[in-house]
Amino acid sequence: xxEGDMVRSIVKFLTxxxxxxxxxxxxxxxxxxxxxxLSEKIGSVNGAILILVGMASSNSENVLSIEKADKTLENLExxxxxxxxxAECGRLQPLLRLxxxxxxxxKLSMASYLGELVxxxxxxxxxxxxxxxxxxxVMRSGNMQSREAxxxxxxxxxxxxxSSRLLLEAGILPSLVKDLFTVGNNQLPMRLKEVSATILANxxxxxxxxxxxxxxxxDNQTLVxxxxxxxxxxxxxxxxxxxxxxxxxxxxxxxxSPTTVLDVVSSIKSSGATISLIQFIEAPQLDLRMASIKLLxxxxxxxxxxxxxxxxxxxxxxxSLIRVVxxxxxxxxxxxxxxxxxxxxxxxxxLTRLMLDEGVFHMVIPRIRKIRQGGxxxxxxxxxxxxxxxxxxxxxxxxxxxxxxxxxxxCREENVAALxxxxxxxxxxxxxxxxxxxxxxxxxxxxxxxxxxxxxxSPGFCGSFFHCFSKPPVITGLCCVHGGTCSIKETFCxxxxxxxxxxxxxxDHRNENVVEASxxxxxxxxxxxxxxxxxxxxxxxxxxxxxxxxxxxxxxxENLRRxxxxxxxxxxxxxxxxxxxSGDQNVSANVSMALVDAFRNSDYRTxxxxxxxxxxxxxxxKFSEVFPNTR
Length: 631
What we know:
Shape: elongated
Oligomer: single chain
Largest sheet: none
Number of strands: 0
Distance between the termini: 111 Å
Structural class: mainly alpha
Strand content: under 5%
């Protein structure tokens, strides 16, 4: 009765629409499963174990059927193949129990099978909690075949935060690092070192652990100790791309953490490995290339000049980095590559010249415009960091305007100022708004040098001797701030580009860095070398005075206060504006108190400026009581 087709027929009844038939079928299978020989036959029927696992965990079956399905599965556990099928169907406890309690051969086969399963994060946590310590012990002391099975299983369960933390708490790290560094007779074959490197990368990038607190041995060295980092760098340079890319990912994780990045930076500097790491930018393997770019991007805030000097070398790595950015749009690799370029020192004129020669800025500009116009990469999850990087790279050309004619020519040719004005409106992208305002400050600083003053005709012979015969010509269309002919494209004039209102609207931004950059850009309209009084009038007409006063009163950062005090001193030089401010007693009193506070508590230069601002106010009638003499 239990042979062949009969068993398959019983299994079919497990899916019958009537519960009575299902109940009878599972009861019959339960009786048959008591025989070890028949257990193997039941498990060999396609779908039998999957159906039984579903019944055992069902909320809709009657209690008797659920109980019989569960007991049937317990009986089927006598066959290892059935246990593996159960694990594949999500019932892992039998397999985990055999890893813990089975004979050595069974432990090996179950661990090997576990390494091949695709597990959800919840299941990874269950496995790590149940058998993590056991697998780590096998990894430490088993034979090579057992160690391979344990490593592959540990690789499977190390890729989520909770499970990776459990493995670290179980003590996996010292043995893992030892396996990577060991050479000689006891070393792991390279294919297993690759697995070890993958596990280590998973632990570092997923666990959120502070690795400077985990000792690797009795000498209390840690993963970020100089000797250990040097060994990792040596392995990266002397193993194949598969292991190298994983170990680079380890360093990426360590340099992502603010608690360990400086230790890694120090070790890379002391090892002289900067050139070697940069050379991986040219690697043909995507994983290796992308890991190196991500690492260099993490390093750039701490050793940006060293990276810039290396990229300026003759080996062509800068060109390789540029090719990564230019080949496609919006990939993870591109976002990292453009981020690395953006993090390099912006005032390094030699690097800017090289980037001009390489055509970097001509490549960046159309990509920014395409994204802003709704190009086909808007859905990419890397579009925001990619656009941020593009904007920051483009902004560096504005730091070279006074020293590099090619930078000036490019900004005119591409109408860069208008592009940055458009980017001011990238709502929700604070860094892009901040960088755009900073670039506009640099561009606007050059406006007074670029504006074209009209050539006045000679007064003639009579006019030279008799001034009554000479009338000054009436010239219209001149910029009220810069005094000449301005445009947004040729002289980067903020007035001509209608940027003033957009910058004013950012003065109440929640991000103080955006506010500071916007205020700095607006301050170029009342700086030395322009008509300050008319610049103040422009700010008044744009309703900028109140937001500037608000910035002064809020004192969000010392830099913001310094800029606001400077701007207020310039504004208060215009008596009409000062009278307007004095019309509101609350505002005038608050301004006075803010300036007095700056005079008492800021740096020496800001105190001087605040004192001058208070003197401007003291000159106005009826203000002697509101604004006390500070001397």
